[in-house]
Design a protein that fits this description.
This protein is an all-beta fold and 57 residues long. The protein has no helices and five strands. It has a five-stranded antiparallel β-sheet with strand order 3-2-1-4-5, with no helix packed on it.
């Protein structure tokens, strides 16, 4: 599954992403966040069947 989200902020060691039309926040540990996004930038997240996440853009 691919989810498109907007990068919102860094909070308590997590990158906070706001997915389109889901009404939830996705938190990714900053140690795994290798993207230098600015607030409001769009990113895509691949979610695998085992629950693993991967940023794809």
């Amino acid at each position: 599954m691919i989810i498109k989200a907007i990068f919102d902020r860094i909070e308590n060691g997590f990158a906070v992403l706001l997915p389109d039309n889901l009404g939830i926040e996705i938190n990714i540990p900053v140690s795994k966040w290798k993207n230098n996004c600015q607030r409001g930038e769009s990113v895509s997240i691949m979610i695998y069947d085992n629950g693993a996440l991967r940023l794809i853009g």
